[in-house]
Amino acid sequence: MxxxxxNPRGFCAGVNMAIECVDQVLAFKxxxxxxxxxxxxxxxxxxxxxxxxxxxxxxxxxxxxxxVVVYSAHGISPEVRAAAKARRLIEVDATCPLVTKVHSEVLxxxxxxxxxxxxxHRNHDEAVGTVxxxxxKIIVVESAEEVQRxxxxxxxxxxxVTQTTLSLSDAQIVIDALKKRFPRIRHPAKDxxxxxxxxxxxxxxxxxxxxxxxxxxxxxxxxxxxxxxETAAAAGKPAYLIDDDSxxxxxxxxxxxxxxxxxxxxxxxxxxxxxxxxxxxxxGGTVETxxxxxxxxxxxxxxxxxxxxxxx
Length: 312
What we know:
The chain is of the alpha/beta class. It has eleven helices and twelve strands.
């Protein structure tokens, strides 16, 4: 078997920063450490933190008054911040800076009197947090069909932003529909879909023609991981999303000579290594890495985490 490892894959700068935030709080404060929502959408990362004393909550009222709370990489609404302050919580904000950029765009458009259309998945943590910045002025749009059903009081002052983890092709379909219906619609000068999501999808698009099967390591609640499976399927390749190599099905490999492996932006590299080792043992696989672009972006720890270090 020929095994192609897509590069880039796995952890992005935002995920690295968010995980480091929780590591630092554990080091400074010790367990229990409270995190609002899953710090990143990966079962292995979350379970590892649970074993170290991290408590994941879906409501800040579950956090004891005066305790430290870490906000997940997906961002939160002002309502959550207000509730945390009312409980005198010490806030450590691990929101990805690229998500924070979208929040800032929403606030600017809302301040200028625009109706904002958020292109994304309305139940995703990122969407919930972003919509919370201006709930009376923002509408979530998931598809081109929803664009046609929009009823807006003023079609001259409209802007759109996008979720950072969308499929490039799916997002473009919705954006094209928005621009066609609202030719004067405003939008950010720079694309909101993050560099890591873009790079991983492009790698699958370019490399999947050489493969008979595509395996994506990531959890099922990871938007960017799901988009990688969809990208491979759009290229006509069978593709499966797995949390780890324990989920492999031997039937997938009948007649398969070449496997492309990638990983979502919140999936640890050790899961890729375990998958490769298993394929080598069972199929005598030879491994090659194909790199489309080198990623060197990194984010500093947020001020809230650095301040916690100073206090301790």
